[in-house]
Amino acid sequence: MPYKKRQRFLPEMAAEESDLFDSLPDDLVISILSKLSSSAGCPSDFVNILMTCKRLNSLALHPRVIRRLLENVRH
């Protein structure tokens, strides 16, 4: 029975994988954040998203996302 070598984790692979998020269009990320903001149990749940990276922080402050968050808090 031939022995199959396990693939090694290469730093180049990690760089390629991290680019997947960066390749998403801002409109798509804003739409996802809008859905998340409307389903967050409390504002602090959504604030945790803001702290994960600079891109999410800036996109989460988009008016559409904030509007959905405020609608959720009021109800």
Account of the 3D structure:
With 75 residues, this protein is mostly helical. Helices cover 71% and strands 0% of the residues. It is built from five helices and no strands. The chain has helices spanning 11-22, 26-39, 43-50, 54-60, 63-74. α2 runs parallel beside α5. It is globular and about 35 Å long. The termini are far apart. The model has no long low-confidence stretch (mean pLDDT 78).
Distinctive features:
75 residues; mainly alpha; 5 helices; 71% helix
Shape: globular
Number of β-strand runs:
0
Query: How many angstroms does the end-to-end distance come to?
Result: 63 Å
Number of helices, where a helix is a run of at least 4 consecutive DSSP H or I residues: 5
Largest sheet: none
Order of helices and strands: HHHHH
Helix/strand-derived category reads mainly alpha
Q: Quote the beta fraction.
A: under 5%
**Which ranges are low-confidence, i.e. pLDDT below 50, for 5 or more consecutive residues?**
none
Over all CA atoms, what is the radius of gyration? 18 Å
Arithmetic mean pLDDT: 78
Percent in helix: over 70%
